[in-house]
Structures are given as structure tokens and as C-alpha cells.
Records
---
Amino acid sequence: MNARTEPAQAEPATPARPPIVRELLLVAGLFLVYKVGRQLAAGHTGEAFRNAHDVWHVERLLRLPAEGSVQSLLLHGDTLAEAANTYYATVHFPATLAFLIWLYLRRPAHYVWARRVLAAVTAAALVLHLVFPLAPPRMLAATGLVDTAHVYGPSVYGPPQTDHLSNQFAAMPSLHFGWALMVAIGLVVATRSRWRWLWLLHPLLTLLVIVGTANHYWLDAVVAGALLGIALALIRAPRRTAATAGRGAPAPVSVPAEKPVLVGAGR
């Protein structure tokens, strides 16, 4: 009998990071699809305004609070309106990118999960942009709302007739809100700090900004939240491990040694 023992190898405490080049291409592709997809949905002006009137009336039937109640808070001074416009224009992409980079470096398993969820929500949103063009409330006279970006600046949009860099009729769903909510949920799930729930202030502030600046209706955020909920139900988050238990670097995980395995005993 030629028997020998081979020690069982312990599994790594944290999952390996995906190849960085592949991930850079995937994330860059996600942002590119977002921009190009919105361009494909451009136009359809008449349909976009008809849908806008329908959404406005549905909100009133549902007795949702008027978007003007939020905007009135911003119109007390130029500084607050400018701050909201700046937040809308500058936080959306950088915050999401920083979120993905942090997860990639510190929580690889959560990174893959978050990237898949964001991709699914973005793809579903682009389909809705194509089939349901929607003029934002700042364009709809019936709302009585002010285009704060045009009046106070800064603005990321030009006149709809000459703006060929963005689709201004892609209001529903609001990816500003959907992505912000995913950033908060992802950080709450991936960390253990007692302060982690404060990340929910990010989507809350984003919601107030997109409504107060008249770029989105309440229902745009509701639909974005619903799409995110479906994606989260279908794409499950990884289980918590000891690597997420601490506030700092991942803690090492001790793996109990297994008994030696007899090799060749049955020959």
C-alpha cells in the first residue's frame, strides 16, 4: 500500500479581484452605453410632452406632493439654487465611479454584485427611455416650475433644439436617483460601521435636487427605485464575511485545518 498524506489547502479569506483591464473596459462600456443609449432615445418631442402631461395628472390623482413645494425651498436665494444645480451636474458620475473603485479595492465580491446591479438597472432604464420619452417638468408649462439651471446656473443642458450631446426627453426613470440609491445600499451592505446608514442621505439629497431643479418628477424616482428593487431581488448580494466585520482593512479569516487525506489507500 503506497499511502501518503496531502494537506488540504485553505481557501483564500477574500475573493480575488477581477482582472482590472477587463473591469475598466466593462465600466467604461457601461457609461458609454448610458450616454449613447440616451442619444438613441432623443427626439419624439410631441410624444414626450403628451407623456409629461399624463405623468403630471397621474401624480395629482395619486395626491403626491407638488414638485413646486421642494423647488420653493431652493428659490429663497441664488446660492441654494446654484448649489443644487452644481450637485445635479457634478456628483452623479463621480460618486458612482468612486463607489465602484472603492468596492473593487476593498470588497471585490461586492464590487461584482454592484456592477451587475448597476448594469441591469441602466439597461432597463434605457429601454424605458426608448419606449416612453418624457419631457422633464422644467419644460412643461402646466407645472409652473422654474428651470433653475437656466436661471441660476450651472446648466448641463443646452436648448433642446440644438443640444445634440444629451437626450432631454429621458426623464423616466431617473438614473440620477437609481444610481445614488444603489451607491447607498451597496455601502450599507458592504460595510459594518455604525455610521453606514448615513449613506442613505446621498439618495435623499439627490431626490430633493432632481425634483427641486425641475429635472424630474416624483414618479421618475419611484420607477427607478422599483427597477433597482427588481434587480436586487434577482442579483443577490454576497454574504457577509469576517472581511466586512471591521471598519478598516479586511480581517484575516482563520480556516480550520482538515484531517490529512490518505492518497492511494484504495489501490
---
Amino acid sequence: MTGNDSPVLRVAGRPVARYVTRPELPHRLSPRPYLHPVTTLAGTAVTEFSPADHLHHLGVGVAVPDVEGHNFWGGRTFVRGRGPTELDNHGTQRHTAFQLRDPDGFVEELRWIAAGAELLRERRTVAATELTGTAWALDFTFSLTNTTPDPLGVGSPATNGRPGAAYGGFFWRARKESAAPRVFTADREGEREVHGRGADWLALTGETWSLVFAGATARTRRDPWFVRTEEYPGVGSSLAHDDRVTVAPGDTLVRRIVTVVADGRLDADGAAALVRKAVST
């Protein structure tokens, strides 16, 4: 990895992702570290950064729209009875230090700050692993510790009254092409069928690329998937789907997502095989 603020992850010597630790962004976008561009081994970009349709979508990272009323997602806040509302409630994820830095990954410490106070302290572990000559895996773990003296409520627009909008947590804004990507799990296909449901893995395939997302812990697998393909291509793992999640003082919330990044369009058998290899590696 090179550069103090933009380390580059490499797989078999090839650059596959750039990580920006201190982005210069407007406050309403909830500035936070992100991975972009993320590419296949052949060099196809599979992320988008601040696209016109959603300026606050920043490649791959962790974004939460409601931490005790503070917006760490960016953009408008969904307010019950009012809908999406422009509020001055945005938080910032601040890079503190790298505990470990290698060409294929890092361990990072971050502080989640809003209204001048620290709410959460995060340890983020990211690793890139070669799977085959045409596929690699991004292993992404985040651990959020409540550093306040009071419980912190984590919510989503869904828990605040907007059905179907349980976004918040790990989120990947994917490459937008002329046609919407295909999305499927082992037994379901299409945005309507997979969105808001749990599945061991979920695949998104574009013209020449595939992404396969998998919860790598039992707790992570209980979180339903947030999926968009028609409006824009994006996949996330929902922290607060049906109810708000409370993090007690000193407690830590942990999630781990492994994503297969492959050249070509995988089918269900190919996706499942690569996920098995990625999670067991």
C-alpha cells in the first residue's frame, strides 16, 4: 500500500482498491473513509463515488443514517410524518490511525463524531485475498463501540416509518451501466425477491463483472440484505431492519462481510463456489 491518505490494496501484485482515509467532502455528505475505485483483477471498476443520483454514495464503506438521531449516511434524513428532510445533523467518521498496514490490507481505528462529541469508536479490518485467476475477495469487518455514558439507538428510515428503506451498515455502491444488473441468491432472483430478506450470499452481475456478498459470521447473516438495481445498483447489509438496535455503553456491535469480486458473469453455482472459498480462506 502506498500514500498516507490513499493506501492501495493489491492482490498478486495488482492494484484492486484505493482507500481514502481523509476525504475532503461537504459536511452534508457525512464525510467518511471509503474504498474507491474497487476493480476486478482485469481492471474493471465495480464501484461509484458520489454519483449524480446520490452524491452521498461513496464507493464501499460503512454508513448509518441514524445513530441517536445523527446522520452518518449523508443527504437528507427521513423524519416520521415529514418524509426526507434536510437537517443539520450530519456526523463524520474520522480516521485516527492504522494499527496495521500491509499491501493486502489494514487494521484502522476511527472515531464517529457528531455535534462535537464522539459517539462511537470503530476498529475496521480490511483484507484482499486472491481466489482464482479471475476473482478475489474483500474481507471487511467493522466493530463499533459505544464510548458515551448512555445507550445509543441505531436506526434506519424503515424503523423511522419508511417501509422498505432499512439501509445502514456495510454498503457497496456498484457500477452503473446502461442496463440494470442481475441480482440473485441461491433460490431467488430479482430485486423484489431478494430485497429485505436474509440469504447466505447475494450476487450482483453486470456486463463483464460479478459481486457476491456474504455474511461471514452467524450474527451478520441474520441481517437482511438491502438491494437496489433499477433505481441504482447498490447492496448493503441492514443493521436496523425491523427495529432499532441499542448499543449499551461500552458494548460493541460487530459485523463482517466478505465480497467476491470477479471478472465475467457468474451463475449461482459459480457464485456459491467462490463464496465457499472466500469465507474459508
